[in-house]
Amino acid sequence: MCIITATIYNSLFFRNLMNYTELNLNEKIQAGLSEAGYATCTPVQEQVLKASLDGSDLYVQSQTGTGKTAAFLVTIMQEILSTSDSSGKKNALILVPTRELAVQVEEEAKKLGKHTGLRFASFYGGVGYEKQVADLKKGCDIIIGTPGRVIDLAEGRQMDLSKVGYLAIDEADRMFDMGFYPDLRKLIHFLPKNEGEGKARQTMLFSATLNSYVKNLAWEYTREAKEITIEAQNITVDEIDQELIHVSSDDKMKLLLGIFKKENPESVIIFCDTKKMCEIVSKRLQINGIKNEYIIGDLPQSKRLKIMDAFKAGKVTCLVATDVAARGIDVNDLAMVVNYDLPNEAENYVHRIGRTARAGKSGKAYTFCSERDVYSLAPIERYIEKQIPSRVAVTEDFEEDKSKDVYIRLDSEEREERRSSRGERGERSGRNRRDRGAASEKGGRRGRKESRKSYSDEEIKSFKGDKSKNTVRRASDEEIAKLSGMSSDERLKYFKEKYAKSSTSVYKSESKKTGSKAKRSKGRGNDRKTLHGKRSETPPKKIGLIARLKSLIGRGK
Prior knowledge:
By secondary structure, this protein is an alpha/beta fold. The protein has helices at residues 12-15, 27-35, 43-52, 68-83, 99-112, 130-138, 147-155, 172-177, 181-188, 212-221, 233-238, 252-263, 275-287, 301-312, 346-353, 377-384, 411-450, 457-464, 477-484, 488-498, 500-520, 544-556, and strands at 2-7, 58-61, 91-95, 120-123, 142-145, 164-169, 202-207, 226-231, 240-246, 268-271, 293-295, 318-321, 336-339, 363-369, 390-392, 527-529, 535-537. Strands 1-8-2-7-6-3-5-4 form an 8-stranded parallel sheet, sandwiched between helices. Strands 11-12-10-13-14-9-15 form a 7-stranded parallel sheet, sandwiched between helices. The longest helix has 40 residues, at 411-450. It is elongated, with a radius of gyration of 46 Å.
């Protein structure tokens, strides 16, 4: 691996850099650079353009805010325009860690490539697929996206990565911090492979800090890559007025209000460690009359983009953000950065304060160090190899905090309460419906019970039938005494004679019923053939007392 090192020691270094007009770039790109106000290359832009225009792979270590976005965009556009006529048109893939950064890179690409005729589009999660799929169908020369959404589209065969000739991975260290390392490895398998003597794609990795994962990725997926290191000493030390103030956690807001009153910054980003703290700080500032917006990962994508656009346009001058949410914010004239909380990772300190010194400009960075933050201070100072100028906050630094005794309700709490209240209302309405239903059912049963009609004895007798016509009657006491003195044969004879008439009538009525059923159910075994081939009707089955008497008589014979 070839190593190229450019160290920036002071601002004089910027006055000795190359102009874009000295580079052999396509005239359409030159026109876009001129309109965008790009005249002189920054160190990373000069080194990248010199090393990459021959198609070499690169691993670039350069701080945030040094202009590396324009470096890889100009390189990719120049390569596409110069090779499209000879070897067939290839497209490019630019991977970034956050949605905000994807939108920022797309905007920069459209600005620099305004006259090239190339088509650019960004692809990220948090929004629907329809517009992004439509952009792919129209054709896209430079694809800018986050790993997750690009993988989804590639696996769904809506994004074709087989013709990607140029791959740029921006802020690779941040991707690994966010857990994208497996996604990067998976995604690279969708791209053309550099096998044999031929080279299918050019790969460029950009990182603010040296990371073993980034180095491993560079060694694994690049071929004879050139390593470019842009030292950031001037950005973290010389160009930024840093001040660390020791203050208790309870007095941080009073100190912040005092700095606002003293400095009255034109633009400021306040960094907090957690999403919850971002929201609390933002709302406390609002109570104290300082208009601001906060940006965290939980906000809808449309709202995040709207806030970022307003901040870039100067409509919002104070922004409270987490490290991840602020990755896509690119403001050249940011006046101040306030570290309300010290970052847990030393590299993030460099990312934060570097936003006030874009392209060699100076800036101001305040860092609050409380009893909770002190353990993160030593790793930061070891990382930047310098002790940050510090002092202890005094009474004169504080300003009255009007939100001191105010309980701050988080938006997440309000959303949760609204959801629970809707659930309670739904449960109550459901319970009321059940109660109304039970009451109506009970009332219906009561109404039906009360509406029952009372019948006379004659009507009931007509429903049940006339007992006098019943052929089977209960024996009287005299009959029982008479039967008790008879033998079994005499008793059978007595019953046969007594019930012969009634049994005959019952038999005839039952024969009519069973005969009609037999006619309706042919083929069910009710008809049987005799020896002469004629059909004979099966006698109906005897029922009730007569049937039992017949069986007893037959048994007695």
